[in-house]
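Quick question, first post here. What does this chain look like in 3D?
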Amino acid sequence: MDSIYDLGNRRELMIDDFLTSSTDGDVAFCCHAPTAKECIPELRGLYYVTILKMDDIFRIYYRGIVEGYDGPGNDGNPGEFTGLLESSDGLNWKKPALNIFPQAAPNAIIFGTVETHNFVPFIDRNPKCPHDERYKAVAGLCTGGGLHRFHSADGIHWNKYDLPGLFSSLPPSHKTLDSQNVCFWSESQQRYFVYFRHYIGEKNGMQNGLRSIAMSSSPDFIRWSEPVKLDINLADEHLYVSLFAPYYRAPHIFIGTPTRFFENRGGATDIALCHTRDGINICRPFPGAWILPGRDKSHWQNRSNYLAYNCWQTAEDELSFLHKSGTRYALRLDGFSSLRAGYKGGKWISRPMRYRSGTLECNAATSAGGFLKAGIMDADEKFLPGFSIYDSDMFFGDETVMTPSWNGQKALPLKDGDVFRLCFEFKECDIYSFCLQ
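> Answer (accepted):
Ran it through. Tokens below.
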């Protein structure tokens, strides 16, 4: 029998078969790519972009070059700075005139250190985090002493922790850490995670084969575990960045959108989609490209296809992703993938789950001729009286918030601790997520 999953009030994305016990008929998982929307000129060509939202303010952090700089162009060169952009709606951006560093741009927040090369901040959601350290960041290179840690009270004025750099003992010749290394607090695992550049395999007898990703975790942002190399690369595939982050509507799932780099194709790149539920075991149910280079010739050059770190919500039903070209890509809320039933229709039955509270809520869309019905089963896959798919009120339409009902009844016949299964009968329908709210 399938093990019991304590669902609680988690939103579950239909992104893998973790919750699947069985399917029948024309049912399969389907990947959904975001759609290119408008270009935001002021965001074009920015490197190693991070997007954060605190209260009602969106912020973009990026790597910039001092205007007119003509010095050395090596990693962490003296002309680099970390710049800041702000927005009230996530669509219109401006450069604040901070004037912290007279030698750099007016919106520079970090300047004069090697960490400007890949400064990546995050908002620390750890409830034990002191208020004056609610912003944290990681940045640095092996040649600059490793991955250093920073903190800030306001996200503008930053201080470096008096701690040794992480992973400074890794071979600098491999350019380990020379990437957008990302860090965050995991609410579900009560730990910090950092994902950083590493190399796997050998090339020409030297251990600098495929660019890849390693992970380390920490209970306190001070003590970190030994790095674990992730099994994520496909054959002959470099992964330039990982961009793993907890998806804010389902934070127990980390979504990654790594840039794939093909050295033997002139440095052509595209963007993939992956996820993990435990931070280590990476799932790529759709292993190919998620965002293609497209018809724009400039997107077929090296370093052309990157996404900013973190998606953000720009409408009630829309997620946005920022591409290096300045193009905003839009995706349905929770819409990375779906459980889809085709024309012939089919059924899906979940593994047993433990009920805590709430009514069932689905994010789903049908065709004009499609439908969705829901049933509540016991652990032995028997429908509870009055809550079978035959009692279910038929849904057809397109809603990010849809509450199934049975003869008009929405409240579930369950009490705290009960074990149950979900059953969906559907046709020409995509189910993107569900939860108990």
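The mean pLDDT is 94.
The chain has no helices and 31 strands.
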